[in-house]
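Anyone? Bumping this.
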Amino acid sequence: MRLSTSAVFCLLGLLPCDRVIDAAPPPKANVIVIFADDLGYGDLGCYGSPTIRTPHLDRMAAEGLRFTDFYSASEVCTPSRAALLTGRYPIRSGMCGNRRVLFPSSKGGLPPEEITIAEALRDQGYATAHVGKWHLGIHEGSRPLDQGFQHSFGLPYSNDMDARSDLPRGATGSPNPPQDGWNVPLIRDGKIVEQPADQTTLTKRYTKEAVQFIRQQKDGSFFLYFAHTFPHVPMFASPAFKGKSRAGIYGDAVEELDWSVGQVLDALRTEGIADRTLVVFTSDNGPWLIMGDQGGSAGLLRDGKGSTWEGGMRVPGIAWMPGRIKPSVTSQRAGTLDLLPSALAIAGAPLPDKVPLDGVDLAPLLFAAQPLVERPYFYYRGDQIFACRLGEWKAHFKTQTGYGQPQAETHDPPLLFHLGRDASEKRNVAAAHADVLAEIQQAVKLHQSTIVPGVPQLQ
Amino acid sequence: MRLSTSAVFCLLGLLPCDRVIDAAPPPKANVIVIFADDLGYGDLGCYGSPTIRTPHLDRMAAEGLRFTDFYSASEVCTPSRAALLTGRYPIRSGMCGNRRVLFPSSKGGLPPEEITIAEALRDQGYATAHVGKWHLGIHEGSRPLDQGFQHSFGLPYSNDMDARSDLPRGATGSPNPPQDGWNVPLIRDGKIVEQPADQTTLTKRYTKEAVQFIRQQKDGSFFLYFAHTFPHVPMFASPAFKGKSRAGIYGDAVEELDWSVGQVLDALRTEGIADRTLVVFTSDNGPWLIMGDQGGSAGLLRDGKGSTWEGGMRVPGIAWMPGRIKPSVTSQRAGTLDLLPSALAIAGAPLPDKVPLDGVDLAPLLFAAQPLVERPYFYYRGDQIFACRLGEWKAHFKTQTGYGQPQAETHDPPLLFHLGRDASEKRNVAAAHADVLAEIQQAVKLHQSTIVPGVPQLQ
């Protein structure tokens, strides 16, 4: 039996049932998305890291639903974030292109007409906050307060941007002073409050902000988009974490991020709202492998950030709502594109009208362990489809390593891998499966027929 | 405060304390070693496999101590097994050499004068049993019953040996009949009971035998060495598991192995002896990467079986004894060489006299979370030291891929990797750490001065 989302929610008490008429309706469930930056598939204990200790995320996974096949919607930062907040492949919003991400000099940004999770939930009476990195535009119409967030505290873009060449760059993590050369501003509700931001205490200050917001909004419904700055380079950790991990400064930064997740979940427990708050933890793309000791690991997956091999786009994904989500591991394929439909379903909000969406509502999987409908997944690099997954099969039409391979290689016939038997994409079996390739090519064609590219924003 | 092992055991009730004089001494703790064949570091859920489901091993890990840095004592089968049972690098017993492993035509085997865990515990009144693969010799003096085991049921060597060329080999897992061409005998207490062994039901029959032994011996003390045949090629799974995993026949075999572990632990729980039975699960070496869909994964570690890169020798390692071992994850470096000293300490048995041992007693770590003494670890390939680990540092003097690279490459100066910051051994930092290299070379020299090579057995 397949239950409708609203029926599931009604049974679970997440949505008011009609027969509950003699009491004020309970507040709708809260939604928190915790988004790491450049964290790899293999960088958490519960995903097999031998060197980085992440007890809080491991506990979150043990208490919640851990996805083995969770995808970001892009292999780099800006498009991935646009997709998460809109539930749409970045090609639709114009938030992708040859320049890969937004830079401080870019004129574009997330178009005002795009509907974000924050806008949709705000319209349902949710309090909304953005904490952390933005990277979806610094001009009017694209900024956090323009895109549905009532509160915003964080960096406008990546922490390696806006560096001042007149300042000595210094070694990352150099204590004297630690932010040498880096000049990214820290912004609260549109106003710069510190420049350069002291990156050694960013995770701590973000966390304080997030916990404060949770405490203030505990009696109502809220949406918190908590997009960490780390473990993106340059890597910093506060004194309590610096030099403490086995894995160097990268490990220190991830262990502090893990601590931060623990603080957020503890606040929910303490306030007694854990069982009506969906928390999703994930990453914007795979690890930045060229960064040496400051880059993470995709575990057994091939390649990393910037590539459409699995390591570039398959990321940790954990959903938590104790008492509502049963502790489990799932191999159902899901991703950040699904967060908007899921959040809106939880809030009882209507889906945006006449806007093509690319995700599905995960609620039946999260709350009733029902399998998701089979659907293809498209690996975009910029505005091009490089690969497509259908079931366990993945076809690559083009490949290019994360950073370093100057040009993409085109494959005709495409490469074909079975991600179940060959998670590391080592054995091309295209020759034996022409039927699968044909099916995938058909799916790509169908998808492309629905695409009206947005005005390119990453110029 | 560092407690002696006997003091720890006394406190824990694992050994009789002198003042307990008015009652029969409780039976000494049992020891079970479950040994997988060619299982890779990345092949279990709790070590990050996205495709193989291992709920029983995951539970064992969650209830016990999971090692991130657990090593087999060789990169291939026979030497690894000799080292586990004797607590000595294979060079000392002669159980290594250019031929890598024993073959059915080999004249050698584990020398009778070697002292195995089974012999030492039998002398303490333990019942002893071997179930599964042996691969330490088929001639008098080397067989299970000659080496301290009172019961033995299993294969004399690998399941791909002894193939009969007059039989069609057939595809592995071919149902008609499944063992086409493979001709390995199944032996009980020295007598062939089936040839060819029906490999589709081996794991099931091994498990039945192991559980039966546990039930029979539940009131005394026992040592069970349960050395699985799988996931060594050719891969088989029983009908209940075949075709059930995401990861093809390899995943099916590992999932059946996981089921088997669950059966053993359940028997201990049911018989009420879980809290006085130490169970250690590990693998003889890394995954056989050249086997395609029938090979496993070393996760983020480099290379696999046959090589002294981490993927060849670092393996899953889980220790379980509910109520005695606290649930935790440890990055302390340990390995199969430590099992003999640990088992003997648990049994209150004296260490073999005048025999150089290469392991340490893990009891202080297992039962009291005390760190182990820092000591170097030597990666042998055959009778040569290819690499050495000291703390987080690993130096390679020679490297050779698992199977395929025809000759070893010599490195002078050696390659140097930091396994904390670079678990995948990607970034050679030898140039910046001459002092570390010198210290490692000193450790190798000291170790070599203690080595009296045994008479070569693998001719």
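Late reply, but here is one note on the structure posted above: Residues 248-270 of chain B form the longest helix (23 residues).
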